[in-house]
């Protein structure tokens, strides 16, 4: 696959909300958190972990995507991304050098391009994610997207989808499976807050 920086698929996140008032280094969280939660659907921009599984909104942080920008641009809403504490800490002030960028090494911007399913895929056996482009590999490594809790959540999500599919196939209209239906409904509700499905691919050996 190409390492080009030009997006080849629609972006995963579309911003449709705006904060009220000017953002500064003193007020950006207070003013930006609500529109960010709406635009990113309460999920981390990088791992896609939902705030419900990240111990709530107070544990969700705001990452400055490009940390090199001057103060008056640093707080622009387009430069602010919703992130778990883990991803925000791992990204920190990291940014590839001009030499690295010339080789296609960069962070993926989910508001401008398709990251998962284009640059990053999930191994169906290990549920680890891996990059297939220079940008994808850098993104996964620097952000530590194979941290144990993320791999476990992706594994649980896949097992729940498989279990739901197998169980629902056995249900027949009119049969008294109300307790089972209730359990399935709870599983389906819980599944909504798991890391979404990521296109599978086998890692090249």
Walk me through the structure:
The chain starts with 27 loop residues before the first helix and ends in a 14-residue tail after the last helix. It is mostly helical and 205 residues long. A hairpin with a 6-residue loop joins β3 (120-122) and β4 (129-131). α6 (148-168) runs antiparallel to α7. Helices cover 36% and strands 8% of the residues. The model is unreliable at 1-7 (pLDDT under 50). The chain is globular. It folds into 2 domains: 28-145, no CATH class; 149-191. The strands form 2 sheets. It has a two-stranded antiparallel sheet. The longest helix is centred in the last third of the chain and has 21 residues, at 148-168.
Q: Whole-Å distance between the termini?
A: 16 Å
Structural class: mainly alpha
How many strands in all? 4
Overall shape: it is: globular
Mean pLDDT: 92
* Helix percentage range: 25-40%
The Cα radius of gyration reads 19 Å
- Structural domain count: 2
């Amino acid at each position: 696959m190409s390492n080009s920086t030009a997006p080849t698929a629609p972006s995963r996140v579309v911003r449709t909300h705006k904060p009220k008032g000017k953002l500064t280094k003193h007020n950006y969280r207070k003013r930006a958190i609500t529109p960010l939660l709406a635009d990113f659907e309460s999920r981390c921009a990088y791992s896609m972990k939902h705030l419900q599984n990240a111990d709530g909104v107070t544990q969700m942080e705001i990452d400055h995507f490009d940390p090199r920008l001057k103060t008056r641009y640093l707080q622009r809403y387009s430069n602010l991304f919703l992130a778990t504490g883990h991803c925000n800490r791992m990204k920190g002030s990291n940014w590839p050098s001009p030499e690295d960028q010339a080789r296609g090494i960069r962070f993926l911007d989910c508001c401008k391009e398709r990251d998962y399913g284009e640059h990053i895929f999930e191994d169906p056996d290990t549920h680890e994610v891996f990059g297939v482009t220079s940008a994808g590999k850098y993104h996964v490594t620097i952000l530590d997207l194979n941290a144990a809790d993320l791999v476990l959540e992706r594994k649980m999500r896949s097992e729940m989808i498989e279990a739901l599919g197998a169980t629902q196939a056995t249900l027949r209209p009119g049969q008294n499976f109300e307790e089972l239906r209730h359990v399935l409904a709870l599983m389906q509700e819980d599944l909504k807050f798991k890391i979404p499905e990521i296109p599978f691919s086998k890692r090249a050996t």
